[in-house]
Amino acid sequence: MIILQGDTDPSMMQVIMMAPVASFIFAITIASSLWAFYNDALYSNMIMQPYAVARRYRVYTLLTSGMIHADYMHLLFNMLTYYFFAFNLEPLIGHWQFGLLYVLSLILSDLPTVYKHRNDEWYSCLGASGAVSAVIFSSIVHNPVGLMGILFLPFPIYAVVFGVLYLVYCSYASKNARDNINHDAHFFGAVSGVFITIALHHEWLPLFFEQISAKVQSLLH
């Protein structure tokens, strides 16, 4: 999925200068994921197991589990999505604010999973999806009427519409899906992204509704 941008195409150095925190997270997540693919000990030490965390053991994995991925496709999808949103968001939300958003949402997105699976010794999870969802939804708060192109969808949709559909799907999938995807982390990461963004930039909230109102009026006339 991508949010459609203009024709500007900044150089790599310009991107790093505009979004140094997003660049660091991007690089360290790719590097640690690739390393863990070939290092079983590192992989085992970084993956999050709710059974252990609920008993105050390996609590650090609430962070480190977001730095590794299950396979190349998992890593590619998360980092590609992150790339299209994070590097545009950081200059808008602020550097330390972006870092706080990412790290805090990474933790908050996993806490419901820790509680839900606190007695399941077999359960473990990993990946940056919760934090990436927070980045996406922070972008939606800033620009709810921006157009987003979605994989397998032949036409773009408004960001706020995508946000609603995303939350509905995550909620449904969490209760009914039988895949190996932690849909709870996606849902709570997205919700965390909204609330953290509003806490950091409360002035964005009235602008959010103003943009939607203006778009609705323009569509009706």
Explain what the structure shows:
- The chain has 221 residues and is mainly alpha-helical.
- Helix content is 68%, strand content 3%.
- It contains eleven helices and three strands; from the N terminus they run E-H-H-H-H-H-H-H-H-E-E-H-H-H.
- It has helices at residues 12-18, 20-37, 40-46, 50-53, 61-64, 72-93, 95-116, 129-142, 159-176, 183-200, 204-220, and strands at 2-3, 147-149, 157-158.
- Strands 1-2-3 form a three-stranded antiparallel β-sheet.
- Helix 6 runs parallel beside helix 8 (129-142) and helix 9 runs antiparallel to helix 10.
- The longest helix is centred in the middle third of the chain and has 22 residues, at 72-93.
- The assembly state of the depicted protein chains is single chain
Low-confidence region ranges: 1-8
Choose one word for the global shape. globular
Order of helices and strands: EHHHHHHHHEEHHH
Question: Order of strands side by side in the largest beta sheet?
Answer: 1-2-3
Radius of gyration computed on alpha carbons: 18 Å
**Helix count from the secondary structure assignment:** 11
* Beginning-to-end CA distance, first to last residue: 30 Å
Structural class estimated from helices and strands = mainly alpha
Q: How many extended strands?
A: 3
SS strand fraction: under 5%
Assign a percent range to the helix content.
Answer: 55-70%
Tell me about the biggest sheet? 3 strands, antiparallel
Mean pLDDT: 92
